[in-house]
TrEMBL record:
Residues 184-205 have a biased composition (Low complexity). It comes from the Eukaryota. Residues 184-244 are annotated as: Disordered. Coiled coil: none annotated. This is ASCH domain-containing protein. Residues 16-118 form the ASCH domain. Residues 217-232 have a biased composition (Polar residues). It holds the Pfam family ASCH. InterPro entries: ASCH_domain, PUA-like_sf, TRIP4-like.
Amino acid sequence: MRGWGRNESNYRNPCLTMHQPWASLLVHGIKRIEGRSWPAPIRGRLWIHAAGKVPEPDTIKAMEDFYREIYAVNGVTHIEFPEHYPVSRLLGCVEIAGCVTCEELVSWEAIPEGVRLEGQTAFVWLCEQPQKLIVPFEMRGYQGVYNLERRIYESAVRGLTSISAPLPVKFPLPNPQDRFSLKPGSLASYSSGSSSSKMEKSPALQAAIDGARAAATQFTKNNSSEPTTLTIEGSGKPVSSRAK
């Protein structure tokens, strides 16, 4: 298993390839949690690249319905979803504030209830400060977290623009002096508290959650011959190095 240790020396301008529609939802600040079966190996800026698979309309609808419902939990009734979900493109970046377990996330009362509903995988990467590229540009994606080529980074960093997210979240660090303090196990004291699994869910919210899970399940079946951790946020598995 990949560790969450402090050694980031191998990462310079780290990037993660994700499938659509999850990639654009993250860069547009709608998605605030990236679910993975492995802990986040970095803190700070993470570039987001969209894989080459064109998303099915039903998958896009299921995920947009899911986010409408979980934002409604916090009183947000209007969300501007992306007009397009481009593929094989570098889209923008987010800041990784930390990584905790799903059990810790769902019991963490310091963050909005809707954010806690996003957690569906073993580890959840906590994403803040989304920025998108004014003009996404084509590039190849690779497995796991990898480094952007310097020439791509130098072009991309000049083309970023801030996002007005529907409900921006600032994840509080247990130790503000240590940016790695928000890590698996750091919120263990919250795990015995309330959780999203115990939240009273409306029929519409439960239907949206079930629909998102079904969409993720179908995506996994259609796009992978290997078992992977099911996640509302995406396939939960790094894209193949052959993906574009």
